[in-house]
Specification:
globular, binds S-adenosylmethionine, seven-stranded mixed β-sheet, 190 residues, Rossmann fold
Length: 190
């Protein structure tokens, strides 16, 4: 079976190298981000990272398993004269993930993480830092036929980790159907 990296590299090889459209839930929630260092996880070609990096309050690092996606992102960023860093990393590489720390914000859009991945990302968040996790829910499967295994269950991450407080959970009322969790880290250790 093809690895996630190969699958996404293949997809990004066909890129037209233009700025991807940011997800509606990012536009709605940009004001929830704290100024400072932002880690955009599963960034792909930068639909989130580039949009955030256009605001001078944020220093953005884009993390993805796909080196091709990140190369495309860098090219688009250079064309737009946006400054950001990239980090090619597998979210399942716990050793390397554990080296990430002190981000003021973490964004994760249109990728369904495991509980283990969410917990590692919370560890990478500074105390008082915010984590926006937004991806497709089961309505996207029912209405648009999007693969069920990539969809969030209802309230799936409501009580994911005691180190964070849930500031809000919102559900889009129209397509694309997404759930958006906004967490704030409240304590250093579990
Ligand atoms: C649907 S794209 C979302 C891209 C971007 N966040 C957006 O909203 O447009 C999912 C991304 O997850 C990345 N990805 C998949 N598995 C991953 C893993 N194990 N570690 C890091 N990134 C991964 C893929 O390379 C791909 O860029």
């Amino acid at each position: 079976m093809r690895s996630d990296r190969d699958k996404w590299n293949c997809r990004y090889q066909q890129s037209d190298l233009v700025m991807p459209t940011p997800p509606p839930a990012l536009i709605d929630n940009l004001h929830q981000l704290q100024p400072g260092n932002v880690l955009d996880v599963a960034s792909g070609e930068g639909a989130v990272a580039l949009y955030v990096a256009a605001n001078p309050s944020f220093k953005v690092t884009a993390l993805d398993i796909s080196d091709v996606g990140l190369k495309n992102l860098k090219k688009i960023a250079n064309d737009l004269q946006l400054d950001l860093k990239t980090l090619c990393l597998d979210l399942d590489n716990s050793t390397r993930m554990a080296q990430l720390s002190d981000y003021d914000c973490i964004t994760l859009f249109r990728y369904k993480p495991t509980v283990k991945q969410v917990k590692q990302l919370i560890s990478a968040l500074a105390v008082n830092g915010r984590f926006i996790l937004s991806t497709f829910n089961l309505q996207q499967h029912r209405v648009n036929g999007f693969s069920e295994r990539f969809c969030l269950e209802d309230e799936e991450f409501l009580n994911v980790d005691t180190r964070v407080e849930l500031l809000s959970l919102s559900r889009s009322s129209q397509s694309p159907y997404t759930d958006t969790y906004i967490f704030q880290r409240v304590s250093a250790d579990q």
